[in-house]
Each structure stands twice: as C-alpha cells, then as structure tokens.
Write the structure tokens for this entry.
Amino acid sequence: MQIVKLSNANINDWLEFFDARAFKDHQEWKTCYCTYYFRPKLETYKNIHSRNRNYAIWLIQKGIMQGYLAYEDNKVIGWCNSSNKSAFTRLPTNYDVEEESIKSIVCFIVDKEHRSKGVATSLLQEILNDAKEEGFKIVEAYPNKNAEDAFGNYHGAYGMYIKNGFIEETNANRIIVRKYL
C-alpha cells in the first residue's frame, strides 16, 4: 500500500474512487464527495448551482480540500479528508487553542473489499507524520464512540485514535479526540 497526498496530479484517481467504489454499499452517500464540512459553500465559489462533485473539484484545485489517498496496485482503496481546521466551516470552534495550529480529520472512506486491513490506520500514520513536519501542534478528530459499522465510523474509529495516542476531550457536547504533537 502507498499513501499519497491529494493533489491536482491525482484528482482523477480521487474522482474515480468516489464515482465508482467509495459508496458501493452505501449508495445514499454517493453524491457527498466529502464536501459536507465545507458548507455553506465558500463565497469565492461562484458556481452556486453546481453539484457536490464540481464543488469538490474546485476545492481540490484551490488547495482547500486536502487529504490522503491509499493506493494498492495503482488503484485508490482509501481516502482521508484532513486539513487545517479553519478550512472546515462546519466544525465547532475551539476557544482554548488557535485554530491554525490544529490539523483536523473529518472523514475516512475505505473500499469495501479493503476494510479491516489497516488502511485507515496507515492513512492516520501519514497524517500524524506530516502534521508534525508541517508545524501543527494538534491533530484533532471527531469519532462516533458508539458507531456500529463502517459508515458510523466515517470520522475514523474511536479505538483507532486511542491506540495511536489520542486523548478524549469534549467540546460543545461533542466527543473530540486530540493528539498533541
């Protein structure tokens, strides 16, 4: 498995994953394109009536949507949406830490055939390595502690974070896990 940062160079790989495989077993999320946490649409995005797919392309091209792709045999098998917390307009604000010092993780998607094989953990390890090098002080995520399936764990499994040194905190009645770098 190879982990690669999302970029304009691999945007077509990302789109193919979302278009064809990301939600084979959860069709109601098929049109998400990982844009939920960028709502409302940024004012600088002029194509208000376009679909989420077009908005996602714009976010990636502008460097606003960032994250990591997991590849196996030159095919994307997993994705993690992770960026500076200030990029995600739907996340709760923390008053105890400067937002610019936090790298947030909002979504993991792993191809059905590759779940429970360490893909999400490998993506998380890459995020942690890069976050430290990029000067972030905290990596933060928002897992559903009571999730019962892969889609309930779309923020990442609570246990995965705890095993990787995150600690649980709460903010506005929401579970937040943080790893202080």
Summary: The mean pLDDT is 90. Residues 2-180 form a domain with the Aminopeptidase fold (CATH 3.40.630.30). The beta strands are 2-5, 67-72, 75-84, 102-110, 138-141, 167-171, 174-180.
